[in-house]
Amino acid sequence: MAAASDLAPDPVFDPWDPAFLADPYPAYARLRSLGRVVRYEPTNQWLVPHHADVSALLRDRRLGRTYQHRFTHEDFGRTAPPPEHEPFHTLNDHGMLDLEPPDHTRIRRLVSKAFTPRTVEGLKPYVERLAADLVADLVKAGGGDLLTDVAEPLPVAVIAEMLGIPEADRAPLRPWSADICGMYELSPSEETAARAVRASEEFTEYLRHLIAARRAEPGDDLISGLIAAHDEGDRLTEQEMISTCVLLLNAGHEATVNATVNGWWALFRNPAELERLRADHSLIPSAVEELMRYDTPLQLFERWVLDDIEIDGTTISRGSEVALLFGAANHDPAVFTDPARLDLTRTDNPHISFSAGIHYCIGAPLARLELAASMGALLRGAPTLGLVAEPVRKPNFVIRGLEGLRVET
User: Fold this and answer.
1) pLDDT of amino acid 232
2) Are 38 and 46 in contact (CB under 8 A)?
3) What whole-number distance in Å separates Cα of residue 309 and Cα of residue 62?
4) Which of 66, 270, 306, 373 is a good FRET partner for 128, with 20 to 30 A between their CA atoms?
5) Three-state SS for 72?
């Protein structure tokens, strides 16, 4: 296998091509055959498609989600974001997903005090009841859009409930999240940036008022817990609290929504596996893991090279950006037997859909709970759930999802 490759003029990797977006996995197989690291000029990135390399680089401290803890933009050979994008970057850059130690360590430690496994486990009855109610409404209507009727309202309501956001205030949460997450796509447009800036400003202003209210009158919610969390004199600043709340909301439902509809679309395309699941609900835990692997909701995670690294004889210098291809890694035949096959009984399943290393998804237990709850509720409450029409894929690459999923019960 070649150490590295530049993509041919007709590239196998084209994240703006509808055909590629419809099914990127055959292209990933060709990409893996080109080498362990592949230069992609349109985004000025090094693509990393193999599971072993993606897994190792997620844990490699020579790479980072940011470089600003060590370098200025100029020192790093990068251009500072435009001033008009500042509200988005202030919000984004103070969240632990885009921070490196020591700030990441401090914030994650403090957030973990409020976001405990016990807290998540305590939500189980609420999550399961809400999932059952949403499915009952879907059945009563004879069907609908699985995305808007079940997949979306469940995790949005759960994370809003955890944060203590009143029901009357929840309508803008999903639109704000969608507009902010648009900036995580490759080469976002100025229109996308303008929407993200506006959503960042509005979301920030809302949370400032909510945090002030919780300071005056604490409740039994995550925001009150974040306000109270302290460790050896450390506390979260107000901006860190705001950024953490937005991160928990965005990460707390975007992946879950997309994993739900991607998963059911995969089940409808694999009817033998769907019947297997309907016959044996004990497969739900392994089915959740396999569906997260099979059609990965987050396809790419970026890292900055803080110190020179070498991959199979290719030196990638400081200042470069690597694109870790989760979807390609999750279909690597070196790790997964017959990776193109959906196998709900797959037990050896080290998928990296929740990332790895210090940025491993803090909400993974909650996501698993929600995915299992909605799947179980649909299997029990809508045992003959069927597809009405083939869905339309969203024109996004990084965050992979559907425009909707029309079903009948």
Assistant:
1) 66
2) yes
3) 7
4) 270
5) coil
- CATH code of 4-408, in short, is 1.10.630.10
Mean pLDDT confidence for 16-37: 95
> String of b and e for 82-117 (b: at least 16 CB within 10 Å)?
eeebebbbebbbbbbbbbbeeebebbbebbeebbee
> Which residues pair with residue 39 across a beta bridge?
6, 46
User: Phi/psi zone of residue 6: left (φ > 0), alpha (ψ -120 to 50 degrees), beta?
Assistant: beta
- Tell me how far CA of residue 355 lies from CA of 93, 179, 327, 350, in angstroms: 19, 23, 11, 11
The rounded Cα 291 to chain-centroid distance in angstroms is: 14
pLDDT in tens, 156-185: 999 999 999 999 999 999 999 999 999 999
Q: Contact, 95 vs 213, CB < 8 A?
A: no
**Domain segments of the chain: what residues?**
4-408
226 to each of 108, 112, 251, 269, how far by Cα in Å? Answer: 11, 9, 17, 43
Q: Under a CB-based contact definition with an 8 Å cutoff, are residues 180 and 246 in contact? A: yes
C-alpha count within 13 angstroms, C-beta hemisphere, residue 53? 24
Reported as a single tens digit per residue, the pLDDT across 51-81 is 999 999 999 999 999 999 999 999 999 999 9
Q: Looking at the DSSP assignment, which residues form a beta bridge with residue 145?
A: 406
Q: Is 248 exposed, middle or buried (0-12, 13-18, 19+ CB in 10 A)?
A: buried
Q: What is the pTM of this model?
A: 0.93
pLDDT digits (tens, 9 = 90+) for 370-397: 999 999 999 999 999 999 999 999 999 9
Max Cα-Cα span within the chain: 62
Residue 236 CA to residue 107 CA, distance in Å, equals: 7
Beta-bridged to residue 408, according to DSSP, are: 143, 386
* Burial (CB count within 10 angstroms: exposed 0-12, middle 13-18, buried 19+), residue 168: exposed
